[in-house]
Amino acid sequence: MRRIAAVTLLLCLIAGTAGGILITEFCPDPYRPGDPDEYLVLEGEGLLDGFVLSDGKGGFRFPPGTRIDGRLVVAKSGPAFEQTHGYLPDFEIEGRTPTVPDVIPSGNLLMANQADKLLLYRGTTLVQQVAWPADVHPREGQVHYLEEGAWDPRPLFIGQSRFSPATFEDVAVTAFAAPDCSYSVFSAAVASAEREVLVNVYEFTDPAMAADLIRARERGAAVTVLLEGGPVGGIPPEERAIAGSLNRSGIVVLSMTTTDAAHAKYRYDHAKYSIIDGETVLIGSENFKPGGYPAPGLQGNRGWGACLEDPGLAAYFREIFLSDARGGDIIPFEGTAAGVHVPYAPAYTVEFAPCRAEGARVTPVLSPDTSALIIRLIEGAEKSIAIEQAYITNETGCDLNPFLVTAINASRRGVAVRVLLDAFWFNTEGDADNDEMVAIINRIAAAEGLPLEARLVDLDANNLAKIHNKGVIVDGRAVLVSSINWNANSPAFNREAGVIIEHPDIAAYYTRVFEDDWDASGAGGTGSATGPDRLKIVAAACILAGLLGLYAYRRGRT
Fold this sequence. Notes:
The chain is an alpha+beta fold. The protein has 2 domains: 150 residues, no CATH class; 360 residues, Endonuclease, Chain A, CATH 3.30.870. A 15-stranded mixed beta sheet has the order 19-15-14-13-16-17-18-12-20-26-25-24-21-22-23, sandwiched between helices.
């Protein structure tokens, strides 16, 4: 009996050492020259005696008695890894740091950037192999990771977060629309701040919004603003002037940009949200610019936003903010002492007041972390989908945008789908932008007989500057309010932020705003392109009038 018990114990110990230990993450091509911060991660539980990592040419094993209990990081250079990631690895290969244990090398394991492999052995048994470019597609700065048995479920780059989906119940929501009431909701929310205001926004050029934040700081609230350090077209002088006024008031202004210390975490920090006193989140599609948050009665963009009151939701977004606002890619943003010129805006008749509702269900949507939730939202549609976007671009010349594909597929199962796109000149003057996208969608609808229609918005009819929205309404029950554009970059490589709000009153509110824009744009999908198309129409009318006049003149002479 003792022999049987001893054999059983030995088998259990052997099984324990196997423990499901796997390579779950590695980065062969980090940003630093020479890749001293390349690393790999093992996960599992048990002893590592007998385990060997190899690339087929060189490799290493661990000191006898080494045990893994969860996650274990092995880096080429401990100091280089710490400089990139902010903490030391569990082991290093080069043996330069006294405080970091060394692996036992056999040859030289170096992960080549473009083509190589990692082999995990236990004794002479091959436990795992991952090769690139066969199993993963290498790219500078990309971290390859294993999730639920699949490599790279989404692109992940050094420094980026991996937040999991979360849903919050019983949230109080104030829905608002730009240009109608966006500024009044923002101003009231910031006026309520007593302790802290955290702002993450792509661009900030609105002096009225800056003044609201300065007043919060003067009341004693700690205010921090995080901006994109390299927006498309560069940082405008108006934003530097705004930053200067915030600097002088004692507000901390930061920017995310590539520095000598670190590469920027995201291609663009394109999010647009604020967290107030750890209790309220204000989020939407609009930048902090006069067109996104105009004074009541002035023209601006069509955008959607929401003010969400829930401590748990606010804590979730606060963690995102703090994660994004630290690291070597975050630097102080020094402004200027220049004044800010506010551009002229025509008068606008306010149509939509804010809408408040209690008891909403809210799910944050982050890019790149959880942007796939947009596809799930659209896939869950049973009756209707309303989409209002600044623009939609395809993945390639042959591949439609994946969000759009999901919506078209919904129409194929009988869901009524409407798509409304911006008609401002920079979204219609090219050969492959919104007017062509509207035509593509309507051709698909006509060819297959689908309940699917696309239109260009008529900006003149609704007195809007442009459509800057990134919204979706599903079945009159759920609404996406976000900063996520429908292109190849925004869902996969930017930091973006949004929410899916489930509440019938909130969905009805945004539906009224959408219907107003849709109905004003008429049938046929052409809309108004604000400029070139109108001139063509006028020119054609003048030519026709001239021809008719010439015809009448000649008849009079005969």
